[in-house]
Amino acid sequence: MSRGIGPQRRETRRTSAAVVLLLLWLGILAAMGNGLGSTAPGGATQPYIPPGGGTSDARRADEILLSSPGQAAHPHPAGSPDRAVSRLRLATYNIRWGLGADGVHDLERTARVLRAIDADIVLLNEVDINWRRSGNADQPAYLAAAAGYPHVYFGPALRTWASGRLGLSLYGNALLSRFPLENTRTVPLPAGPGREPRAAVLAEVELAGATLTVLGTHLGLNRGDRLAQTARLAALAGSQAGPVVLMGDFNAEPEAPEVRQLLDAGLVDAFAQAGAAGSGFTFPTGDPRVRIDYVLVSPDLAPRVVAAGPLAVDASDHLPVVVDLDWPARL
After folding, report:
1. Closest CA to 51 of 113, 110, 92, 101
2. Residue ranges per domain, the chain?
3. Is the model's pLDDT at 58 over the cut of 70?
C-alpha cells in the first residue's frame, strides 16, 4: 500500500525506476554469472540461468529491484565499527531448508543467493537445525558463516524428533546481520489445536544514531490463525519506541484481512511504497502467481524506501524480497 504518493509522483518514480532497473539488470546478470553459478563436471562454472530460462514475469528486469550500481550500499567492510551507513539493505527469504525448485537440497546454493543479495539484515524462514532431511546441519550457523554474517539469531517455532535418533530437531526463523543483534527474543504466536506452531523473532540493531527493531515471522496456513498472529504482531510493532521493520512469509496476499490489519496498524508495505512496476509475486518459484512475502516498515521509514522487489533465483520455492532504505546519521 502506497501512502502519501500521488498518481503523478508515483508515475514519475516508476519511470525513473525503469531506467535504473535496465542498468541494474545487467549488473545482476554479471553478478549471478560469477556468484550464482553451478559447478559442472570438471569444476567449470556455468552461468546461472533463472528458472524457466529468464523470460517469465518473475524474471523480468522490472521485478529485480536492488540498489543502483552507482550507489554504494556498503562503504566500509561488514562489521566495521566505523561503517558509515548510508544505504541499508534488508531481505526476507523463505529458504525451504535449502530445497530448491529442482527438488535438490543444496544449502551452498542458498548461501550463494545470500552473498549475491548482499543484504545488511536478512530474515530466513523454514530453517532447520538437526533434521535428517537436511543432513542434520545447523543451518543458521552454516549460512551465517558461508554468506559472511558475523551475527546470527535463531528462533525455533517447532521442536520435534526428526534427526534419525541424533537428538532434538528445531525448525523456525533466523536473522543474519552485519551488525550486532541486541535484546533478541522469540515470541510464540497463536495457533489452533493441532496446527503447526508459529513464532516471531525480534532483535534490536544499533545503526548510526538510531535503534532499529527487526521483527521476522512465518505466518500460519489458517486464516483465523493468521488474523490472531497479525494482531499480536501489530501490537508488538506498535509497542516499540523507534523505527520498526516486519519481514517474512505471511502466507497471505496483499488484499487479505490479515495483511490489511498490519497496514491499518500503521505499517507500510515497502514494495507499494517504492512505486515499483510489476506484480511483486514471490510464490511459487518458476511461475510466481501470488505475493505472500513482505517487508513492512514503520511510517518514519516509509519515505526512506529507495527500492523493493523480488529477486529471481531458484534455490527455494519462494523468491527473496529485497528492500533498500536510505539511512542517514539520525532519523
Report:
1. 101
2. 7-72+86-326
3. no
- Give yes or no for a contact between 230 and 258, defined as CB atoms under 8 angstroms apart: yes
- Whether cis (ω within 30° of 0) applies to the bond prior to 51 is no
Q: Classify 231 as helix, strand or coil.
A: helix
Q: How confident is the model at residue 126 (pLDDT cuts 50, 70, 90)?
A: very high
Largest Cα span, the chain: 61
Tell how strand 45-46 and strand 87-94 pair up. Answer: unpaired
- Third-level CATH fold of 7-72+86-326: Deoxyribonuclease I; Chain A (3.60.10)
What are the grid coordinates assigned to 252, written together? 497471505
- Per-residue pLDDT band for 31 (boundaries 50, 70, 90) equals very low
Which residue bears the cell 523470460?
55
Q: How far apart are CA 303 and CA 324, in angstroms?
A: 11
* Peptide bond before residue 310 is cis, with ω within 30 degrees of 0: no
CA 295 to CA 248: how far, in whole Å? 7
In the 8-state DSSP scheme, what is residue 192? -
pTM: 0.78
> In whole angstroms, what is the distance from residue 94 CA to residue 122 CA?
11
Question: Is residue 279 pLDDT above 70, yes or no?
Answer: yes
Residue 93, phi then psi, degrees to nearest 5? -150, 120
Of all residues in the chain, what percent carry a pLDDT higher than 90?
Answer: 70
